[in-house]
Structures are given as structure tokens and as C-alpha cells.
Amino acid sequence: MLLYVLFFGVLGLVFGSFLNVVIWRVPRGESIVSPGSHCPECGHILRFWELIPVISFLLLKGKCSRCGLKISLRYPAVEILTGLLFVLVYLFRTERNMIGIILDLAFVAFLIALAFIDIATFRLPDVLVLGIVLIGLINPLLTKDPLFWLSLLGAGTAGGVFTLIAYFYPEGMGWGDVKFVAALGLYLGVPGIFSAVFFASLLGVIIGGLRIIVYKKDFKDPIPFGPFLAGGAVIVLLFGSKLRDILFFLT
Ligand SMILES: [Zn+2]
Could you tell me the pTM of the whole model? Predict the structure, then answer.
């Protein structure tokens, strides 16, 4: 098992490194394959030893080796987060077969990319949301978890409710969130998507509150909802069946 944990951890680190490219380039409309990774300031093309997840950041002391431009802490943070979530998918999604695990890893990768892009730009690029729609359609066909009609019901109900919110309360909810939550509903199905929205709201209240108390932010300061939806989706993905057991036990 330790070998598998190591495998998924390293896979996640490497994939996280790729997600950093996605997070930087997709909102700018740049290709994610070419040109190779380079410093946005001086154009220095990164050499092999500068592309190793986390380790390169430490070796370079968080700076470009040529011009000294500070490299955002987001780079190692995304790599470590991806590594951690890949390991958790392996450890907690024990009921899934190999195809299911691969789909879950892809799902988590899309969530990380969308969450960090939303934080940086207040946008959820359609191309990445479509990625979730695609695996959300494949998932029930290949793994029967959730069943296909529950998957469609998840997309329809969550998308419907959020459409109403976006229509009547456009300041608080963007159409990007509507499309995102419908895609999540497709992947998580019913009742998973309802739990995901519940946890997203809970996280939003806690973090929104902390921002006001600790950072003295204004209540009206905009805060993207995408990262909370992604967080809620990860909680349900990893602990969904266990959460149901706990709720069942309590009632
Ligand atoms: Zn540079």
C-alpha cells in the first residue's frame, strides 16, 4: 500500500505542475503545450532541473534563476495539493475500479484548475467546465456510480436552482457558477450534489466570515464561489458514502 501512496503522491505532484501551466495559460487563451515553460518576465526557458515539482521551487529559493522574478507560492501549493488529493482518492475511493479512480483523478484535477483560476480571475473557463461534463457523461456509463439518470437529475436540479439564483440575484451568482454546478451535478449525481452545495455554502460562510473578522474586508467585497463549490465537491467525492452513514446513524 505504501508503494501505491507514493505512486499517487508523485503522480499528483507531476500533474500539479501541469495544472500550474493550465491555471496560468487557459485564462490568457494561450496553448498549454507550446512553447515550453518559461519565465513570464525574461523569457528564460526552464531547464530540466527547474521543472521538478516543489524541489525546484526550493532549489531556486522561489526566484527565476536568470532575472530573479519572484515565483508565486501558488506553484508549490498547487503541486502539493494535487499530490495530497490524488493520495486521498486512492485511500478513500476504495469502492471504485481502476477506470473509476482515473475518472476521479481527472475530476479532482479539473476542480483544482478551476478553483485557482476563479481565485485569480473570477472566471470559470468553459473549456475546463466542459471537461467535467465529458467525464461526468462517461462516469455513469463505465462505472454505474452514480446511475445515469441520477447523474442527469443532479445536473438538472442543481443547474436549475442556480439558474434561478443567478436570474434573481445576478450580483451574487454568475453564469459561470451555474454551468459549473450543473457539471458537478452530472459527476456527483443525486444526492451527492446537494451535499456538495451544502458544504460549499458552509465553507463560504466560514471563510467569508474570517475574511471580514481577520482581514477587515467589507461584507460587499466580491469573493468567487467556484473554489467553495470545488471544495464541497472534493468533500463529497472523498467522504460521500461515509457522510451518508453518519447522517443515517444520527437520524
Ligand atoms: Zn526570469
Answer: 0.94
What angle separates helix 126-143 from helix 175-188, to the nearest 10 degrees?
20
Q: Which domain holds residue 6?
A: 1-92
pLDDT at 223: 87
**Rounded distance from Cα 112 to ligand 1 centre (Å):** 26
Residues with CB in 5 Å of ion ligand 1:
39, 41-42, 44, 64, 66-67, 69
Amino acid, single-letter form, for residue 167: Y
- Taking a C-beta distance cutoff of 8 angstroms, is the pair 84, 12 a contact? yes
How does residue 158 score in pLDDT terms, banded at 50, 70 and 90? very high
Verify that 240 and 132 share a domain, yes or no: yes
- CA–CA gap between residue 248 and residue 251 (Å, rounded): 5
Residues 16 and 130 in one domain: no
**How far does the centroid of ligand 1 lie from the alpha carbon of residue 21, in Å?**
16
